[in-house]
Predict the 3D structure of the following.
Amino acid sequence: MPIGGKKQPPEANEFESVVVHSTISGRPWQLDGHWNRMFEQRVIWDYDTEGFEQISALDGGESLEWCYRCGKCIPVCPVDLVGNYGPMRLHQLVQQGQDLFASDQAWLCTTCMNCLRVCPKEVNLIKVMPAVREVAVTNGNVPAELQDVFEKSFRYGNALGQNPKRRAAWAKGLDVRQLPDDPAPVDVLMIVEDYWSYHPRGQEAARAFAQIANALGVDWAILGAEEKTIGDSQRLAGEKGLFESLMEDNVATLDRYEFARIVTPDPHGYNALRNVYPTYGHNYEVLHYTQLLAPLIDRIEWNRSLDYKVTFHDPCYLGRHNGEYDAPRRLLESIPGLTMTEMARCRENGYCCGGGGGGMWLDGLTANHTTERLSERRVREAVETGADVLAVCCPYEVSRFEDAAKSTGNDQLKVLDIVEMMAEAMFA
Amino acid sequence: MVTNSVVVIGGGPAGLEAAASVAELGTSVVLVERRGFLGGTPIAENYANLTPHMESAEVAMGRLIERVTSNPLIDVRLEAEVSACRGAAGAFTITVGDQQIDAGSVILATGFQHFDPGAETQMYGYYEHPDVIALQDLEAMLKTHDVVRPSNGEPPKRLCFVQCVGSRDRQIGNEYCSKVCCGVASKEAIEVRQLLPDCKVFIFYIDMRMYGYWENQIYWPAQEQHHVQYIKGIITEVLAKDGRLLVRGEDTTMGRPMEVLMDMVVLSVGMEPSAGTRSMAQLFGVQQNKYGFIDSVRAPLDTVTTSVPGIYSCGAALGPADLEDCASSAAAAAVKSITSQRLRVSAG
């Protein structure tokens, strides 16, 4: 505290510490955890093995106790950058006898997989977190905001709770074939997923995609009102049962039509179709929309050039989870006039937007444990590059980053899906 | 008298391997052992199973002893001690009891002894609390499948290991890492978990030093399959409390003190040169390092040559060593003890 007692309002910085400036010297004083620590129990009274026994008995929960505390996961954990988190900390928490099944800590992980990328012991939160959350779900310990999404997904087949009959409303006025109306065989079956189907900004991207696909002569169609969400984030948030029931419905729907390939704009759905469906015996050729379009760029007739300085945000479930870093960049680089600049955290080390693993629907809970949203931090990283457009190719991200740009006072930063820019350069 | 025979001093893992190797290369050996039996510390201190493959110490050492006793070129002298050495390389005369033995080369395989935890500067209470024991005490219990609290004869519900007792400590004078204790403690932790599935086992450590394959031969299985809890932070005192032991230390990854009750505390004691290593080093006049171990003066690429021509050393007489180290340096010493004589002869 400043000597003399003239308090200045504290300013929060990004590491959850508080700085006040001395009224005498002007020197900053850091008021961090030391102050709180007096009120917490300091001495560790016991270490417990029971938590690990329970968690390691779960299918997928085996690896949490493999942690040997090297701490490599912590600096790359996106949640730790705005809070105090990471696999090693979860390991400590369980070893000290806390009940992870009943703790908020079970819900902060976005399953972005950056920890697993660096973990020498292969502690795999992508498997641990869903297993732990499934127990929490069974016990009824689900954050209300997430439970709401589970119920909407179950009832309406989409996370937004929108009318299933209006799935294809975005396509109105466009030449988009719907298989229920015209079930002839098709090359590309587009699974539009929830946010491109219903979110106003997602619908704009969907419309841009439709125009591009038609201009390039792609033989494609959608499922219209028969589409239900793949529900991969619901699975990772602990609702495996819901995921499986959606999968049953989706497979039954897909069985009715003849198509060569599935394309989706949603890296989460893409991940499930590519990696999870096969474990249940359902095998499809699946592409992310960037992978469909990237080989076709030579066919594109550009109409104008875009004077944009763009930085690209790698979706965790397209990049780290599925190894695709190049297709989106090839599309961006093909747009005339556009210049690319990379953020420090990109590709394999891309920073998470906070939306994965259920994080999309846990804003309230996460806010209680973090100094800012992950999306806000990411927006500030984008602004630091000097870019005027933050390019995305995951339907979660446009709304997340647009909100974050506003809340961080960076309204000048445009958030655009890659297809929106392509359409602008092709058709405007 | 000029002879090409070799005297090996010490009948533990290194001495046995050295004697067997020399004889298998066709040279006669006299193996001198102070104790009344062969096998060295693994047998004398009742080791249960050996790192890293958990083979019974008696079975594994028995195989090596058989290799020695069945070889007609090896003359084993038990309950025998060397009291003098005259001569030089190629023509040593060594006094064993009242006999004089001629030798071209000598191999010192006199080994180590466990650090005495009573000499610890920390308050571990090895001699005060019956339930504070050392690694080799637990080995003896494991050997008879009878791990119980010495104070009351009951199986422990909570048992912990404290690493680096008597090692890596300037005040104690043992600045070196004893190399095997992390692996041995983890091995014993696995064995305790197998024997007493209800017993929770903890290992308090400064840093786990599992060099090479021991990492995933011992450490990872202990943690991943046997649920041994590793806690980074060393115990600094052990206090009696309500008939149990309160271990106190600092959890260094949490930055918080810990006070945890245990039924048994196992001190992971390190290695020191044995009395035999100290006395034989002096008797043969070989250079010792500041800790009393025998110096290998041409290290690192020659690990067995001492400062005195014709005298070689192997195993834990050279410093902390695991069994693999002992077998390797013993074979190297065997070869050097023979080839040095041949080179001398051919050089005239």
Q: What stands out?
A: Chain A touches chain B through 22 residues (CB under 8 Å).
